Amino acid sequence: MYPFTFMRASDFQEALAAGSSGGRYIAGGTSLLDLMRETVERPGALVDISGLPLRDITVNSSGRLRIGALVRMAEAAAHPDVRGTYPVVSQALELSASAQLRNMATIGGNIMQRTRCPYFRDVTAACNKRAPGSGCSARGGSHRSHAILATSEQCVAAHPSDLAVALAALDASVHLLGPDGERTVRLADFLLRPGETPDREQDIDLGELITAVEIPVHSRPLKSGYLKVRDRQSYEFALTSAAVCLHLRGGVIRTAKVAAGGVGTVPLKLPAVERRLIGERPSKRLWAEAAARAADGARPLPGNRFKVELLKRTIERQLRVVGGGE
């Protein structure tokens, strides 16, 4: 470790003032503290925001579900409004990390977590995300767990969050508060693809903090679920994952929301899969034909080429689990 200052914010004004001066916000600390121990992150000041009133889970009059940024992952997974309405969110949370970490980690911190790429976490390795312009060691090194979609020449690191995959499928938004007031950003726009600036991972400005994530109203009944494929059953990040949400009426799929994780530099909606599903009746043939489009545009490296087929199988399996059909 190295010297840094620490303060506990008593209200939003105090937090924003400290954040605008370069302080890093911390609540559960399950991700940031690891990076500080490895000297990947070296903030000069930490601002504890755990005392701010951001722990509510509410459903407004129109049916939009809002989860406060400081709600613990375990609390969100167990909440009846989350579990009953959006099983895909509860399942994604329960498949994330260990029970101990879920009891500490927050919703806001989860979607802000940084990649688990070993080269990013090794300060002696070349990493454009950590040190822009230094290169990408993963391209010529070990990249089995890395992304095959939404990559760039600068970065192929996979996004680690399971929750963000479920939120992406549900078209969730992120609410932010900063020195210039409040704003709302679609999660799909909040989490940034690497492009030429892989070090910029979120659409968040100096001093801003996440106050909540919000899921819009979806047609009912909505069947949903999350599948995570990994090398071992516990405390492991996804090789591939699938968040599937389907609204059926009269035996026909009226709405389809499908997103993939473990294969992209950000959680990715799969519009080609969704388009193939809408207006059709559930069947094994439909699931296979839709899933065949899951890896459209993939750019695998030699060591993770297997993810192309694995992604298709993951999507097909979860479509079958959520949608049924013979």
Automatic annotation (TrEMBL):
Keywords: Oxidoreductase. The keyword Oxidoreductase applies. SMART domains: CO_deh_flav_C. InterPro entries: CO_DH_flav_C (IPR005107), CO_DH_flav_C_dom_sf (IPR036683), Diverse_Substr_Oxidored (IPR051312), FAD-bd_PCMH (IPR016166), FAD-bd_PCMH-like_sf (IPR036318), FAD-bd_PCMH_sub1 (IPR016167), FAD-bd_PCMH_sub2 (IPR016169), Mopterin_DH_FAD-bd (IPR002346). The keyword Oxidoreductase applies. Gene3D superfamilies: 3.30.465.10, CO dehydrogenase flavoprotein, C-terminal domain (3.30.390.50), Uridine Diphospho-n-acetylenolpyruvylglucosamine Reductase, domain 2 (3.30.43.10). Residues 1-220 form the FAD-binding PCMH-type domain. Pfam families: CO_deh_flav_C, FAD_binding_5. SUPFAM superfamilies: CO dehydrogenase flavoprotein C-terminal domain-like, FAD-binding/transporter-associated domain-like. This is Xanthine dehydrogenase family protein subunit M. The lineage of its organism: Bacteria, Bacillati, Actinomycetota, Actinomycetes, Kitasatosporales.
